[in-house]
């Protein structure tokens, strides 16, 4: 789950990481009020996307009336394809230097990795490799003071500045582990006079750990269909094509989409129905697929322990109850496959042996 | 020969009395796996078929020789179950659950490293040394003995490929499911040297997918250390960036983990990548000649 900048900064403040004065505004009056309090302000639209400045989503002003007007125009409008529901009004910093700090997960070492650079404020992919410090944290000991000192040494920092960055590193790591984060990123970390302040916040929390963070605000990024699928316990992603797809297992579902593409078609969705495809789950999965108005439907079931006749019975009874106005192609192999195919034939559904034959047929249907 | 597990491996099932635990224990026994004990807190002294149930892994290990354990518990309790097994001295631990918090996975890997435990998964179907021992949930019928070692990030896709090989008369030595999560115990580069050492393995099939850099690292390793022929299949060619395709680990992030990058890396070291899964057996037959 990605957090909005203002939520990330609220968490930074909780964990003792310095952030600019200010707060979130949901109305133009609030924006007026905050600028009146803090004076010279930066107003930032809150959307889950970068490059807000270029899109006109950021403004500097010391005038509360201007803040109000800008907020009024921005709130409820669309920016980079996303609706702006909130804006962050905070004190404009006098920027002397811009650094970069992030902690994320390194798959190879299976440990947290700190990324730190004195070249902050730009797109992180544009920072040359030689300016990027990478430090793997031993998960068993965490971010001890020596590790933070080593990172600032490699960054080439000294004096009070180094000490402040070390403190921020330890607090950021504490937040990273306490909140089950996948990513905590400060870009830029600003040096302003004697202070080192987090001028931006990018925080992503592990979806699989949200069950133990009920106190965190929830941010919904999924489409309506994706939300519905999630409630049903199905892995689902909206795509742009016209062939509805359902398969069992993430890898085989991806392979099904690839095979469709190989024969010149395009899938309307990714839907991994998981192992057991009961009648109710099948009906609901089909409903989701139908909602996208596909030209054809391809169901790819490699029944291992799942019995093909159970799967076939589920489809047959769904087909009898609901009108499916487009051709359905099923690939069904595994335990009891012969019986499964007979059941499907009885309700007029074609069943195939292999994924590529079924995919070819579905692409053909979708073109007519 | 086979890798990690064989006909002499004594297996423990953690969570043996649950529905899934009992069902898959029976499937494993049917396959020929030596399931010697199970655990279920508070149910010590019971039996599942003829298999004794203990209250804890430590108790089971006091009474029986255990070489490997498989964990059938919900994701939220997986960390505790894994720590219990590692702490008791289990050498190979298979972790099936999906949706284990990634910080729990890091903690488990860290502890396993300190104690010398090999972790398979999480979010895996397990592993099987064909005809000898299956520790996992894969369908028995496709895993017949033969000369091909398979290492995969995805379950059903492995069944698909191993099934199509079996239909073409190609059996397997060991099939290892790495798991679909971001942080998993074994990566391709850990399993490849085991296949290289195994005299029965004549060719290796690598089943990868988008996300991360495990395939690129495998390519670099193959170039330096692997003399046996390798064939690959990768899923996710048509996946859009930034979307998580079912597996937590199957996501193209910040331009990393793309299909094209992986194919290029593997091709560059002489590994042929099948464009469709059914082409894998033909490619394997070609390299075995």
How does this structure look, described?
The complex is a heterodimer of chains A (368) and B (289). Chain A has 368 residues and is of the alpha+beta class. Chain A has 3 domains: 71 residues, Dna Ligase, domain 1, CATH 3.30.1490.20; 116 residues, 2-Layer Sandwich (D-amino Acid Aminotransferase, Chain A, domain 1); 144 residues, 3-Layer(aba) Sandwich (Rossmann fold), CATH 3.40.50.261. In chain A, strands 1, 8, 9, 10, 11, 12 and 13 form a 7-stranded antiparallel beta sheet that branches. In chain A, strands 2-7-3-4 form a 4-stranded antiparallel beta sheet, covered by helices on one side. In chain A, strand 11 and strand 12 form a beta hairpin. With 289 residues, chain B is α/β, with parallel strands linked by helices. Chain B has 2 domains: 111 residues, NAD(P)-binding Rossmann-like Domain (Rossmann fold), CATH 3.40.50.720; 151 residues, Succinyl-CoA synthetase domains (Rossmann fold, 3-Layer(aba) Sandwich), CATH 3.40.50.261. Helices cover 35% and strands 23% of the residues of chain B. Chain B has a 7-stranded mixed beta sheet with strand order 3-4-2-1-5-6-7, with helices on both faces. In chain B, helix 4 links the parallel strand 6 and strand 7. In chain B, helix 3 packs parallel to helix 4, helix 6 runs parallel beside helix 7 and helix 7 packs parallel to helix 8. The longest helix of chain B has 14 residues. At the A-B interface, helix 7 of A face helix 4 and helix 5 of B.
Write the layout of secondary structure elements.
The complex is a heterodimer of chains A (368) and B (289).
Chain A: E1 2-3, H1 5-14, E2 22-25, H2 28-38, E3 41-45, E4 58-61, H3 64-74, E5 78-79, E6 82-83, E7 87-91, E8 97-106, E9 111-117, E10 132-136, H4 145-155, H5 159-178, E11 181-192, E12 195-198, E13 202-205, H6 224-231, E14 235-238, E15 243-247, H7 250-262, E16 269-272, H8 279-290, E17 296-303, H9 308-321, E18 328-334, H10 337-346, E19 350-352, H11 355-367
Chain B: E1 10-14, H1 19-31, E2 34-39, E3 47-48, E4 51-54, H2 57-63, E5 68-71, H3 75-88, E6 92-95, H4 102-115, E7 118-120, E8 126-129, E9 133-136, E10 145-152, H5 155-167, E11 172-177, H6 188-197, E12 203-209, H7 214-225, E13 230-235, H8 259-268, E14 272-274, H9 280-288
Helix pairs in contact in B: 3-4, 6-7, 7-8
């Amino acid at each position: 789950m990605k957090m909005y900048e203002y939520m990330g900064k609220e968490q930074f403040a909780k964990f003792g990481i310095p952030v600019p004065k200010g707060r979130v505004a949901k109305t133009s009056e609030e924006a007026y009020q905050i600028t009146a309090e803090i004076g010279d302000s930066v107003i930032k639209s809150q959307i889950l996307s970068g490059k807000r400045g270029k899109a006109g989503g950021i403004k500097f002003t010391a005038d509360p009336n201007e803040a109000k007007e800008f907020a009024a125009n921005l709130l409820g409008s669309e920016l980079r394809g996303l609706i702006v529901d909130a804006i962050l009004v905070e004190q404009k910093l006098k920027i002397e230097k811009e650094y970069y700090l992030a902690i994320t997960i390194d798959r190879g070492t299976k440990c947290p990795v700190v990324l730190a650079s004195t070249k902050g404020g730009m797109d992180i992919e544009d920072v040359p490799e030689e300016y990027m410090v990478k430090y793997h944290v031993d998960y068993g000991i965490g971010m001890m003071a020596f590790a933070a000192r080593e990172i600032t040494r490699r960054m080439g920092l000294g004096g009070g500045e180094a000490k402040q960055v070390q403190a921020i590193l330890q607090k950021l790591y504490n937040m990273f582990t306490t909140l089950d984060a996948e990513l905590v990123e400060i870009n830029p970390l600003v040096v302003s006079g004697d202070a080192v302040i987090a001028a931006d916040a990018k925080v992503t929390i592990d979806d699989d750990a949200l069950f133990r963070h009920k106190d965190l605000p929830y941010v919904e990024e999924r489409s309506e269909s994706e939300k519905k699928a999630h409630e049903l316990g199905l892995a689902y992603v909206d795509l742009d094509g016209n062939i509805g797809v359902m398969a069992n297992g993430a890898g085989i579902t991806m392979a099904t989409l690839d095979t469709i593409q190989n024969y010149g078609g395009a899938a309307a969705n990714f839907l991994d129905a998981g192992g057991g495809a009961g009648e109710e789950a099948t009906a609901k999965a089909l409903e989701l697929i139908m909602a996208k108005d596909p030209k054809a439907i391809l169901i790819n079931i490699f029944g291992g322990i799942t019995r093909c006749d159970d799967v076939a019975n589920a489809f047959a009874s769904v087909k009898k109850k609901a009108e499916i106005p487009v051709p359905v192609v099923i690939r069904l192999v595994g335990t009891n496959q012969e019986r499964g195919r007979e059941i499907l034939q009885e309700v007029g559904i074609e069943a195939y042996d292999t994924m590529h034959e079924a995919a070819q047929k579905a692409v053909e249907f979708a073109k007519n | 020969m086979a890798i990690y597990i064989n006909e002499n491996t004594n297996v423990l099932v953690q969570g043996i009395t649950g529905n899934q635990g009992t069902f898959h224990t029976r499937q494993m026994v049917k396959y020929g796996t030596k399931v010697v004990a199970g655990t279920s807190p508070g149910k010590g002294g019971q039996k599942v078929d003829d298999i004794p149930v203990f209250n804890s892994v430590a108790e089971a290990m006091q009474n029986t020789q255990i070489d490997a354990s498989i964990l059938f518990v919900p994701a939220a309790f997986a960390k505790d179950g894994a720590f219990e097994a590692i702490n008791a001295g289990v050498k190979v631990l298979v972790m099936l659950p999906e949706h284990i918090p990634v910080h729990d996975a890091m903690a488990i890997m860290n502890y396993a490293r300190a104690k010398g435990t090999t972790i398979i998964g999480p979010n895996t179907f397990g592993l099987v040394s064909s005809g000898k021992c299956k520790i996992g949930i894969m369908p028995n019928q496709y895993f017949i003995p033969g000369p091909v070692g398979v290492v995969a990030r995805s379950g059903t896709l492995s069944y698909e490929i191993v099934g199509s090989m079996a239909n073409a008369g190609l059996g397997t030595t060991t099939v290892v499911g790495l798991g679909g999560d971001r942080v998993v115990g074994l990566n391709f580069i850990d399993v490849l040297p085991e296949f290289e050492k195994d005299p029965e393995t004549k060719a290796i099939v690598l089943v990868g997918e988008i996300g991360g850099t495990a395939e690129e690292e495998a390519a670099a390793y193959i170039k330096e250390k692997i003399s046996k022929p390798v064939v690959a299949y990768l899923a996710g060619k048509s996946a859009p960036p930034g979307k998580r395709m079912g597996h937590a680990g199957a996501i193209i992030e910040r331009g990393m983990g793309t299909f094209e990058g992986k194919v290029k890396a593997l091709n560059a070291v002489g590994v042929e990548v099948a464009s469709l899964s059914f082409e894998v057996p033909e490619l394997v037959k070609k390299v075995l000649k």
